[in-house]
Design a protein that fits this description.
The chain has about 290 residues and is α/β, with parallel strands linked by helices. It is about 40% helix and about 10% strand. The strands form two sheets. A four-stranded parallel beta sheet has the order 4-3-5-6, with helices on both faces. A two-stranded antiparallel ribbon has the order 1-2. The protein binds adenosine-3'-5'-diphosphate. Adenosine-3'-5'-diphosphate (A3P) binds next to helix 2, helix 6 and helix 12.
């Protein structure tokens, strides 16, 4: 159901969205989007490595050749399904298309579920998602100012943030595990073994790469390479969308897996209800999900 806009946010499908960029109409159009069998969807809960995966998928599509990534902004290479501009771009893009989305599974295009289109779902330690989202909410104009980290953490845990609850998002999408056209990976695995991750992606996508092409994907999808590429670092984003005076989009690229990371810096310890999610491979089996 749709409820009245309040403070620039509205509810749709039980989830909060900011009214700048998203609308009930754009979300309904996404739900009705005609999926093609060769579409590749880059799906995440926000701040889980969306643009990193988009870069990897772009580079795989081009057999490691970085020219596409260096000449076309990432939001045109893998447009966001839930905005009208993104939808229009997705319709216009050459196949095979890469399409990005933060939508929870219950709001995803209906036609996907009877298609052979592929979904790649990237999941990240929610403690890092929280910290990354906290910083992002301060620079992304469609979002409300997050206030203090403590207050924002409460909202995050309650799912009272744009795109709703991390828990419901991850739990919903991971129910697709076992389907032939669904692949999931963690941000932490990308960090620990990018080359191996790209190989796994290539075999899922049935897109084999030569060792040299594989090296080119790994090199061009590094944090450093992306930070220097204006087509990938959002420096071309208009100021009314992203206030980059307050910080860059590609902020840190850190984690809490074996590193002190941001989480330790805030000294909050375990979030009640998240705790230590432990072995990412068992994410579906732990109590919090
Ligand atoms: P931090 O804010 O922790 O630095 P999304 O694309 O889903 O919005 O996620 C953004 C997060 O991914 C940011 O995290 C960003 O720095 C990180 N990121 C983007 N590209 C990356 C890369 N090549 N390597 C590591 N982290 C990357």
């Amino acid at each position: 159901g749709i409820s009245v806009m309040s403070h620039g946010y509205f509810q749709h499908g039980g989830v909060t969205f900011p009214g700048l960029l998203y609308s009930p109409r754009s979300l309904e159009a996404a739900r009705e989007f005609p999926v093609e069998d060769d579409d590749v969807f880059n799906v995440t809960y926000q701040k889980s490595g969306t643009v990193w995966m988009l870069e990897i998928l772009s580079l795989i599509r081009q057999d490691g050749d970085p020219r596409w990534c260096r000449s076309v902004p990432n939001w045109d290479r893998g447009p966001w399904l839930e905005t009208l501009l993104g939808l229009r771009r997705a319709r216009a893009n050459a196949r095979p298309r890469i399409i990005s989305s933060h939508l929870p599974v219950h709001m995803f295009p209906k036609s996907f579920f009877g298609s052979k289109a592929k979904v790649i779902y990237t999941v990240r330690d929610p403690k890092d998602v929280l910290v990354s989202l906290f910083h992002f909410a301060r620079i992304f104009r469609p979002y409300r100012d997050p206030g203090s980290l403590g207050d924002f953490m409460d909202k995050f845990l309650q799912g009272d943030v744009p795109f709703g609850s991390w828990f419901q998002h991850v739990r919903g999408w991971l129910q697709l595990r076992g389907r032939e056209n669904f692949f999931w990976i963690s941000y932490e695995e990308l960090q620990q073994d990018l080359r191996g991750s790209v190989q796994r992606l290539c075999s899922f996508l049935c897109h084999p790469l030569s060792p040299a092409a594989l090296d080119a994907v790994v090199t061009n999808a590094s944090f450093a390479a992306m930070s220097h590429n204006p087509m990938s670092n959002f420096s071309l984003s208009p100021g009314f969308i992203l206030d980059q005076n307050r910080g860059p989009f590609l902020r840190k690229g850190g984690d809490t897996w074996g590193h002190p990371g941001d989480w330790g810096q805030w000294d909050i310890g375990d979030i009640q209800g998240i705790g230590d999610i432990g072995d990412i491979g068992d994410i579906g089996d732990i109590g919090v999900l």
